[in-house]
Amino acid sequence: MDIFEKLEVLGAAAKYDVSCASSGSKREKHFGIGSTFSAGICHSWTDDGRCISLLKVLFTNECIFDCAYCINRRSNDIKRATFTPQEVAELTINFYKRNYIEGLFLSSAIKNSPDWTMEMLFRTVWLLRYKYQFNGYIHVKAIPYASLDLIRKTGFLADRMSVNIELPSEKSLRLLCPNKTKESILKPMEFITKVAEEEKNFVSAGQSTQMIIGATDDSDYKIINLSRHLYKKFKLKRVYYSAYTPVNHDPRILKVDSPPLLREHRLYQADWLIRVYNFSADELFKSKDENLDLEVDPKVMWALRNLDRFPIEVNRASYEELIRVPGIGIKSARRIIKNRIFHSLDFEDLKKMGVVLKRAKYFITCNGKTFERYLIDLPPEKIKQKLIDKNSLQRPQQLSFFDREVFTSVITGEI
Amino acid sequence: MYKIFLYDGTFEGFMCAAFHIISEGIDKDRAIIVSKDEYQPMFIDSVREIQNDFKTFLEMRKGIIEKADSNVFKKIYYAFLSDTKDKEGYILRYLFLLLTHGKKIKYLYSNDIVNAVEKMAKNVSREIGKYMGLMRFCDTDEGFLYAKFEPKNDIIKPIAYFFKNRLNEFCWVVHDVKRNKIAIYDKKRVQFLTCSNLKLEATQQDEMFQMLWKTYFKAMAIEERKNLKLQQQNMPKRYWKYLVEKN
Ligand code: SF4
User: Fold this and answer.
1) Which of B198, B176, B192 minimizes the C-alpha distance to B83?
2) CA A377, CA A95: separation in Å to the nearest integer?
């Protein structure tokens, strides 16, 4: 099989992997080719609108395991391919110097044995760092059941490592991944966290994980709660959510006609509220079986349930109160606080600062006045009717939405 | 009668012209700064050619950073790279506002001049950000990596300094085809030149990597999620001309 065919097979096999972010590396650079850019750079956008920043490939798609949701599972009759470490390293270097990519995202199915696979990943990264003196970004998967020593060796050469949690509950994991156990995932995760705390230059851009959404009946509450736990316990940088794309017909998987992209999008928004805006999972959900509202974003959902806290007075509210107003983000909140020192703000001023009044106007006053008279005492159902996000029902935003947001605000924000 | 100040087209030269206008107390509404190449003589104007003096430039820079901060200075620089007509006029007025308002200039949202400069700078900064990712280099027989582009704004300098850091182990040439400007890096420093007939061709081996990249690009698209509108929103068509995967 020639290199073109391998790249086609092993690129396509990696396309469902979500995390392609290349930001936040703090590895020390000594000499050699390239650099990592702390904000990450998008190099292209696929036909489905997701950004490409890394050469994202599987080392091999031959697998000894048989996970129900996975295209590469042993029982599927598909074209198989395996790279050599040399091939991956050369592709990476040559793509990098032409400015096609920021670096490498190397994942793999499990061929021969977990240790064999991990060893190949290690060798690839080693070649890149030592033979080619490559300094760009490298994200490697840690393979479940691989020896911790191999994971450790690889982690010193990588910017980021991740073990995929795959499913939001142990029950679902048992159902869909008969070969994997909770421990086989959490043990390496915990190990990486521990070494990263103790050693310098070990996965310096941190650890992330990925979870499949919609293949099982787990609720959004469970998903978000698990994420919160992962962020806390393992200090993960990111949890990625991946709307399940139906690739296999398997009775164990919930029937999905098309990937639940909007649900994925809402989960990212909720995740963001928790990480950046200090919401708690319990504030966003009423019960364990609850799902996020698909019609409005989770901040609006929360605000409508807590209308007694509103409206808040823009000229007096604290930063914490401001960022909880739908339509007011971190940037707008900061601007409001800085500007009201000079003069008190009215709705015109807010518009000029980039506050999205379409949502915010139901929840704020400026100098005691509401945006329009009738807005006082509108019942929540009426507000919701007006805020239903029609665009996103038709065309949900995709995947790396928030990375892009971080990315653009770092590069183009307040210069 | 207007007082015309001619400068050499560079940012440093522009700052020197602005320095003269400010320090000599000339009425900003009677002063026009225009690049030598673009000036069309009119006999009713008084014309002065301002020399580009690096010391004066440094003094201006220091002044701006002291009055406001280095972000504001960078904003002015980016605005200067904009292809907006009469950017000199806007920036000159901005500098006068800076003199009276200092740091507070950032918050004068409703001021048209501040708004215009802010917009120009943002536009430039966004274009730089996009091109950091969307430049495509190829290997040439001459041993250089070579990249062509046609940016809307005159951003070859910041782009070149970005790649000086990024592709530090290679010799390369970046070529602004529209303006006939090139940046050359020889593993030590970057030089900027104008050059009208530069022809560098990709090697055969390079063409193989171009094909590999196209193969990969295609393989990455998820059919079930196809969304060409979103793709174009992120990667507008005007960037496609030299994009390997789109040709
Ligand atoms: S181990 Fe990984 S590659 Fe193999 S079947 Fe399971 S998910 Fe797929």
Assistant:
1) B176
2) 58
Range B83-86 contact pairs with CB under 8 angstroms and sequence separation of 24 or more: B83/B152, B83/B153, B83/B154, B84/B116, B84/B120
Task: Give the residue-averaged pLDDT of A67-89.
Answer: 95
Q: What would the mean pLDDT of A312-331 be, rounded to a whole number?
A: 93
Distance, in Å, from the CA atom of B144 to the CA atom of B170, rounded to the nearest integer, reads: 7
DSSP result, B201-237: -B-HHHHHHHHHHHHHHHHH--GGG--HHHHHHHS-G
Average pLDDT value over all residues in chain A: 87
Residue B99's contacts (CB-CB under 8 Å, 6 or more residues apart) are B22, B67
**CA dist B231 → A22, A152, A397, B92 (Å):** 19, 38, 11, 38
At residue A24, the pLDDT reads 57
pLDDT over 50 (residue A400): no
Q: State if residue A116 touches ligand 1 by the CB under 6 angstroms criterion.
A: no
Cis peptide before A311 (omega within 30 of 0): yes
Give the tokens for residue A342: 């000079």
pLDDT for the residue numbered A246: 84
* Mutation choice for B interface testing from A20, A51, A98, A346 by most B CBs within 10 A: A98
Q: What is the pLDDT of residue A399?
A: 40
- Supply A247's token pair: 């690739």
Complex-level ipTM beyond the 0.95 threshold = no
The token duo for A89 is: 């390293």
Q: How far apart are CA B87 and CA A108, in angstroms?
A: 53
Give the SS3 label for residue A208.
strand
Name the pairing type of β-strands A51-52 and B145-149: unpaired
Q: Which helix (H) or strand (E) holds B114?
A: helix B112-134
d(CA B47, CA B31): 10
Q: pLDDT at residue A398 above 50? A: no
Instruction: Say how far apart CA B121 and CA B110 lie, in whole Å.
Output: 17
Distance from the A364 Cα atom to the nearest Cα atom in chain B, whole angstroms: 21
Among A276, A225, A262, smallest CA distance to A405 is for A276
3-state SS record for B47-88: EEECCCCHHHHHHHHHHHHHHCCHHHHHHHHHHHHCCCCCHH
Q: pLDDT tens digits for B30-66?
A: 999 999 988 888 777 788 999 999 999 999 999 999 9
Q: Which of A228-237, A325-334, A381-390 has the lowest mean pLDDT?
A: A381-390
Q: Rg of chain B over CA atoms, in angstroms?
A: 21
List, for residues A342-362, the tens digit of each pLDDT value. 888 999 989 888 888 989 999
User: Most A CBs within 10 Å: which of B210, B224, B226, B242, as the mutation test of the A interface?
Assistant: B224
Is A163 a pocket residue for ligand 1 (Cβ < 6 Å)? no
Amino acid identity of A109?
A
Query: Which residues of chain B are under the pLDDT cut of 50?
Result: none
